Task: inverse folding
């Protein structure tokens, strides 16, 4: 089961894909990451359901959809989930409709999705928040390619944030090539790297 940590659907439990096809981001990591995001965005004092109000969210390698559900619960204007496994993508879509979350589910390989020019259903190009959570054993060169595509094809808004979930034992992605303002946070054995796009002013 996937438990939404906070926001308008706090403590709601949703079905997760059967078996070991996906690796869900833990409740603890989601709670800590979204708290950090709220603080970085200057919304730490807002109610959880308002912390991402007006922002668009792209969940790459969505797995069971938990990170995207969390973003929607915290007020994201729309969420796009990208998951190659058709059964997992179908489950995300059914539960998205059950929640009434605004967004869409795309069942395709992440690289295929990112190779198209960046776009979404909002008023401006690029997503405000891009979550990239590939398998931990994805080779470093392939991860670098995905980060390049996010940046070069306009999937991230100029003032947006990219977040990359990895194991602490995985090679460090070279975010500095596109994101001079970058940092990371550790949560147990999980490390989340963050990079900020160029400010618009």
Result:
């Amino acid at each position: 089961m996937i438990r939404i940590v906070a926001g308008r659907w706090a403590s709601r439990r949703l079905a997760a894909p059967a078996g070991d096809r996906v690796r869900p981001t833990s409740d603890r990591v989601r709670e800590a990451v979204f708290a950090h995001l709220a603080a970085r965005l200057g919304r730490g004092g807002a109610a959880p359901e308002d912390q991402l109000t007006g922002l668009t969210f792209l969940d790459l390698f969505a797995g069971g959809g938990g990170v995207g559900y969390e973003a929607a619960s915290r007020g994201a204007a729309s969420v796009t989930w990208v998951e190659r496994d058709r059964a997992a993508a179908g489950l995300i879509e059914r539960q998205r409709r059950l929640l009434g979350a605004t967004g869409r589910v795309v069942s395709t390989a992440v690289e295929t999705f990112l190779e198209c020019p960046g776009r979404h259903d909002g008023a401006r190009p690029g997503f405000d928040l891009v979550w990239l959570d590939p398998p931990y054993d994805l080779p470093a060169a392939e991860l670098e390619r995905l980060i390049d595509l996010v940046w070069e094809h306009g999937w991230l808004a100029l003032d947006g944030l990219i977040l990359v979930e990895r194991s602490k034992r995985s090679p460090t992605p070279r975010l500095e090539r596109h994101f001079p303002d970058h940092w990371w946070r550790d949560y147990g054995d999980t490390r989340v790297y963050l990079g900020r796009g160029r400010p618009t002013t």
About this structure: The two ends are 43 Å apart (CA to CA).
